[in-house]
Amino acid sequence: MNHLDLPPLTRAxxxxxxxxxxxxxxxxxxxxxxxxxxxxxxxxxxxxxTRVMLAALQRLGVGVLCxxxxxxxxxxxALGDNSWRVEGCSGVFPVKDADLFMGNAGTAIRPLTAALxxxxxxxxxSGVPRMHERPIGDLVDGLLQIGADVxxxxxxxxxxxxxxxxxxxxxGPIRLRGDVSSQFLTALLMALPLTGQAVVIEMTTELISRxxxxxxxxxxxxxxxxxxxxxxQRFTIAAGQRYRSPGVxxxxxxxxxASYFLAAGAIGGGPVRVDGVGRNSIQGDVRxxxxxxxxxxxxxxxxxHIAARAPESGKLRAFDLDLNHIPDAAMTLxxxxxxxxxxxxxxxxxxxxxxxxxxxxAMATELRKLGAIVEEGADHLVVSPPAASSAVSSxxxxxxxxxxxxxxxxxxxxxxxxxxxxxxxxxxxxPHCVNKTFPDYFDALxxxxxxxxxxDGPSASGxxxxxxxVAAVLGYHYLDSGSLYRLAALxxxxxxxxxxxETGVAALAAGLPATFxxxxxxxxxxxxxxxxxxEEISAGASKVAALPxxxxxxxxxxxxxxxxxxxxxxxxxxxxxxxxAAEAKVFxxxxxxxxxxxxxxxxxxxxxPANMHALLQDLQERDARDAQRSVAPLRQCxxxxxxxxxxLDIEQAVAAVMSIVRRQQL
Length: 666
Prior knowledge:
Blueprint: E1 3-6, E2 12-17, H1 22-34, E3 38-42, H2 48-59, E4 63-67, E5 83-87, E6 97-101, H3 106-117, E7 122-126, H4 137-144, E8 149-152, E9 161-164, E10 174-176, H5 183-191, E11 199-203, H6 210-222, E12 227-230, E13 234-237, E14 248-250, H7 255-267, E15 269-275, H8 288-294, E16 298-301, E17 305-309, E18 320-322, H9 327-336, E19 344-347, H10 359-369, E20 373-376, E21 381-384, E22 388-390, E23 393-396, E24 402-404, H11 410-416, E25 426-429, H12 441-449, E26 452-456, H13 463-474, E27 477-480, H14 484-495, H15 502-510, E28 514-517, E29 520-523, E30 526-527, H16 535-545, H17 548-559, E31 567-571, H18 574-578, E32 584-589, H19 592-605, H20 612-627, E33 641-644, H21 650-665
Parallel strand pairs: 2-15, 3-14, 6-7, 10-11, 18-19, 24-25, 26-31, 26-32, 27-31, 32-33
Antiparallel strand pairs: 1-25, 3-5, 4-5, 7-9, 8-9, 11-13, 12-13, 15-17, 16-17, 19-21, 20-21, 22-23, 28-29, 29-30
Helix pairs in contact: 1-2, 1-3, 1-6, 2-3, 3-5, 4-5, 5-6, 7-9, 9-11, 13-21, 14-15, 14-16, 15-17, 19-20
């Protein structure tokens, strides 16, 4: 798919578990490779950029091994526990001649270039065409000052590069510019301890993106190397230090990625909570939350989470901010400016020019497509939101049907997805560019923004048939939640997992590959519609439903069915427990006698024996049990609309539900 059509969105609420930080992940991988000993890195980001680094380390002879993850970690988006074991090479890469393809991963090519320049081998580093337009000259100049042999294979100042063996001579301070990218300083800081000698780096310009240097210094210290910093001008590494594995490390959630969801909460009401970063994060991009607070958003800080909701006034305030300290997250502010009450100024963002694309030019172009008035400068951007929709409404009027070009830049794709919260459809071209840092981004966004229609009701009320037809009318996805426990039992039996193995069954339940369409239920490609109705599976479903961990896994699994353009979910606690913030809630019911008669006709139609009295008694007993459950008892939510289908046929019931949905969408 070369584009993604996002529907008009009006609300954002929920919880997202963040993927690992790209900046931390690639730094940890390289430091672990350079260290003595074995390092286990948990919650490593699984993305194009980290795969580039892993592939490069493998080609260099470093032992890297993926450790099976734990699919039960956390609620919200289930990203799993992506863990890797890295066998350190004590600063000496085993392979001395290699061609390395680095894609468009700046966090990989720059520090690896510095480490390889001190490794005594022949190496050639290249990337995608855009990588060959991204500057690396300041780093190469720093390496040449100590005698490294790094050569440009095409245009001076840019990759591709050829590295040759050379003796290192540290005769004085290394003088380095810091006003283009902080990654050049990061690369030198990480590589120079390999010399074993005392090293001094002096900055010749102002250092931008300082919080990223803080990440570098923090991680180097975890591997046993201390750097003395004098303000942001002079960095000293004492002689005789070397990297030693700290054993087990956890990658923090990606604070840059958190910006999209926090902004969604500030724009779309909230609360939206991100898990994986908090007040003690080592990433400077958590300060994005402070920028949102300056716009009036209500921010909550926890040890490992941040949450955001809209201002009490409902309208974000305009801002004029120096954003040099959060250059990546600042892009999200440019889109949030569309929802502000006036002219917004983003200052000191010159580094945008040399990122995955010229982000200042690209952001200006795409913001204008939505109706914003944009002023573009060498190191700043001024965004005035579209005019209000009417004299009585402060909501902006966005241009309808904007198609956002993404320039193979993951952050442009992610931040412009928030424009759909303006209540207009937005097309994202080349959405797969998010694979660079957050392959599951649009699924995660859907889990807090995609419209949900929750249809609850007692057994045999017709909610399944009605829900599936409503989904078809709307073009939404459909979830038959009542089948999930049966599917979990079937999956366990097929996998040879005992039904009382709570951890094993929960692991299967967390990722059930089940789909519901055309009245059929498919599990891992097999039609199991009839198989899950057997007596064995019915009994198994009752057993696994009693296991708390299984219930928790299936709660997360049900929420994961929320996808664009929307979801219709039926069950007995959809509106009360699973999707309490659903856009529309319907409680579908009928008299016990009417439901018993429907069930009787259904069974007779299938050639199965049926007794009307027994069916009625069974339904009445089940209603009583469901209403008295200690967990999520069956009841009509206060904000749900009641539809009594006793006197209605299916078409009339669908029409009644659609009337409720249309009313909620106005």
